[in-house]
Amino acid sequence: MRRRDFVQRLPVIGSGLFLGASGLTLQACGGIAYLAPTTAPGRLTVPRAALEAEGEAFVQAPGMSRPIYVRRAGPDGVVALLASCTHNGCQPSPVGGRLLCPCHGSEFSLEGRVLQGPAERPLTRYEVTEEAGDVVIWLDRVVGA
Ligand code: FES
Questions:
Q1: By C-alpha distance, which of 19, 46, 104 is closest to 27?
Q2: What whole-number distance in Å separates Cα of residue 85 and Cα of residue 101?
Q3: Is the beta carbon of 87 within 6 A of some atom in ligand 1?
Q4: Fewer C-beta within 10 Å: the chain N or C terminus?
């Protein structure tokens, strides 16, 4: 499904804010969408179609201080990274195929590896599974920890 087709199916509630029948919220901010997940203990779930429509997005549930950056990494996988810089906790954003931290210039690959400091540790990466049309981010399953 193309992004335009997906967005056209959602009723507009306010400027930049959309609500779909599933409770999904899309909120554009600086060119990247925010998806509001369905929450359950230890996991966040977003419709696969929403992620496919965007290609990449921030997923943020109420109470989270930083969102999770999620993107399709290929036909077999989805990468989910906590968007909290390991230097001092600022929120990196995708720019030109990297995640850039606005505070002190750290750069991370789209898989979370440090490309440039001052950060020394990779971004926290969560296990992701795909189930029945949904993408599930497992908050209690850190990859490479
Ligand atoms: S908080 Fe990201 S580089 Fe300092």
A1: 19
A2: 7
A3: yes
A4: C
In this prediction, residue 29 has a pLDDT band, given cuts at 50, 70 and 90, of low
Alpha carbon of 100 to ligand 1 centroid (Å): 9
pLDDT tier for residue 25 given thresholds of 50, 70 and 90: low
CA distance 91 to 138: 20
| Residues sharing a CB contact under 8 Å with residue 21, sequence separation 6 or more, in sequence order | none
> In the block, which residue shows the tokens 């929403």?
50
Does residue 122 surpass a pLDDT of 80? yes
Q: How many residues does the chain have?
A: 145
User: Is 121's C-beta closer than 6 angstroms to any atom of ligand 1?
Assistant: no
Task: Tell me phi and psi for residue 16, to 5 degrees.
Answer: 75, 10
What does the alpha-carbon distance between residue 12 and residue 23 come to, in Å, rounded to a whole number? 13
Q: Does pLDDT of 9 surpass 50? A: no
pTM of the model: 0.81
CB burial readout 76-97, b (16+ within 10 A) else e: eebbbbbbbbbbeebbbbbeee
CA proximity to 24, closest of 54, 65, 2:
54
